[in-house]
Amino acid sequence: MRTSQSRRTAHALAASTAALTLLAACAGAGGGGSSGDGDSINVLMVNNPQMAQLQELTEEHFTEETGITVNFSVLPENEVRERISQDFANQSGQYDVATISNYETPIYSRNGWLHSLDEYVEADADYDVEDILEPINLSLTGEDGQLYAQPFYGESSFLMYRTDLFEEHGLTMPERPTWQEVADLAAQVEEAEPDVAGICLRGLPGWGEVIAPLTTVVNTFGGTWFDADWQARLTDPEFVEATEFYVNLVREHGESGAAQAGYAECLNNMVQGNAAMWYDATAGAGSLEAEDSPVAGSIGYVPAPVEQTDSSGWLYTWAWGIQRASENAEAAWEFISWASSSEYEELVGETLGWENVPAGKRASTYEDPRYQEAAAAFYEVTRDAIAEADPINPGVQERPAPGVQFVTIPEFADLGTRVSQEISAAIAGRQSVAEALENAQGMAEDVAEEYQDR
């Protein structure tokens, strides 16, 4: 089981899609089966490609085996976060299971909104919790050292680029690029290929959209949202320089409509050959390398660009949490145990292709020759990025709370969303970066005051 060192680290941490059509509620029908026969659970989840695949596979491969009907409600990222927050905060019990991340898990567990999963993982020998990558499990652990969620997939961030375009125009991608090198390459690509954006970067408002990649840039440029004394630092030179760099890069060499482009839009741009580079989640690689992807086999992958730090990739996981108010916790765990298992990864690999496996969570995945072959282009870079991510010290100075691309405090979801609207407005050209950050600084100062008095 987890060591005392892991528990201490966990305590420190906790004190801290191609574009899909919006899916409404959709249910799997159950046949006969096991002790779970006749049970039904409600699952609320984000609408990314891996979740859509899970939805397609559930009825035949889970419901028919267990007798547990799974009623899915699927929403875009910003909307699903709001719905989950409302339902779990009210403990209404409408949803038994929801996709939460390593941002929400420590906060929700502290508030008593989640079932501890320790008793389930310890009793479920087939699940093999020890196979879950340690950085992922630690990020899903509460202040009390107990697990409160289990990952569907884990991710960091890296830079993806078109090797065919680079070769055609004599461009070389460094093994570990700096952001300035990336900006220079984006300009060179656009000069040679005027119809192709040099890079795709998120500009869509949302703390989980534009704020995620932007904050990693801030970290490596030497900036921070708050210093160790809870002083807001959004107008510090390092934060300003990083934000100006990001906004200028996407305005000068980014995709069209960048202020409304998020993960899904950038993935689509890359798949359709409309962008030469894309800095985003490592989870995007599976879609780029899928059999039906027009760019499969012509994408290269390198670590997240840096400036002052050795690495800058984020750490994130979409995970499954059980609402404390759920009356179906046993059936809910049975679903989680299946959806996060190596058995499920095998199912995806055999039916949908090994490049589509929801990876980034199990050590055994990266040791499987079948996955290594299918994900040869990106699996090592992904594994290393997750291992190198440091939520405690992601930048060049001490932080008051953990988190790479977010700050693990309850107020950050609202703060990050409001700041993202300012940044998106700067990307759209409606205001300057200086104006955006001046407004954002005031918002951050209001949040900081609450912690300075504690």
From TrEMBL:
Record flagged with keyword DNA damage: no
Domain of life the protein comes from: Bacteria
PANTHER family for this protein: ARABINOSE-BINDING PROTEIN-RELATED, DIACETYLCHITOBIOSE BINDING PROTEIN DASA
Gene3D superfamilies: Periplasmic binding protein-like II
Signal peptide: 1-24
PROSITE patterns: PROKAR_LIPOPROTEIN
Keywords for this protein: Signal
Protein name from the UniProt record: Sugar ABC transporter substrate-binding protein
